[in-house]
Amino acid sequence: MIRLVTRARLARLENEARAAVEQGPQTSAAANEAFGRHVRELYAVTDRAERAEATTAEVGTLLARAMEELSAAQQELLLRDIEVRRLSAALEGESLEGRWLVLLLHRGEPHSIHRSQADAHAYVATHGVPVHAWEPSDERPASEVLWRLVPFTRDEAVSGFRSVSVPSPTGWEGAA
Predict the structure, then answer these.
(1) Cα torsion 118, 120, 126, 129: sign
(2) How far is it, in rounded angstroms, from Cα 28 to Cα 4?
(3) pLDDT tens digits for 41-82?
(4) What is the pTM of this model?
(5) Rounded distance, CA 123 to CA 149, Å?
(6) 96 in Cβ contact with 154 (< 8 Å)
(7) Is the dihedral of CA 120, 126, 131, 137 positive or negative?
């Protein structure tokens, strides 16, 4: 195919080529500027991603530690629950019938209650009263005695406790 180029067409092509050459540096500068913006955005996004990864790793470590502590706490709670259930079952299984409690009187006033006479003596020893200082109960008024023990026992016939020195009412012709 043969094409004829006219002078007008040739002049027009030369003008378009000159305009393109003049526009080339502007287009190149705009492209360089756009490329620079994209590179800066890429660096910023990469930095945010790296910080997010570091934070995620740190949070993962904290979460793992918290999960370990939670597991240990749950284990301890389970062991305590088992112990409480065991003790509760032991207490429910024990009959209080015939067991003693000791009321400790100080100068005739109720001071404390203990499971045994030995416990009461040990408690008073913490107040500096030696074991040999205890005197047997006598007829003196309670207010004149420094420390006195009054033993009580569980008695189902009276639905509670009674003094050991007082006999059970079951032998009193059925009166309770």
Answers:
(1) negative
(2) 34
(3) 999 999 999 999 999 999 999 999 999 999 999 999 888 888
(4) 0.37
(5) 12
(6) yes
(7) negative
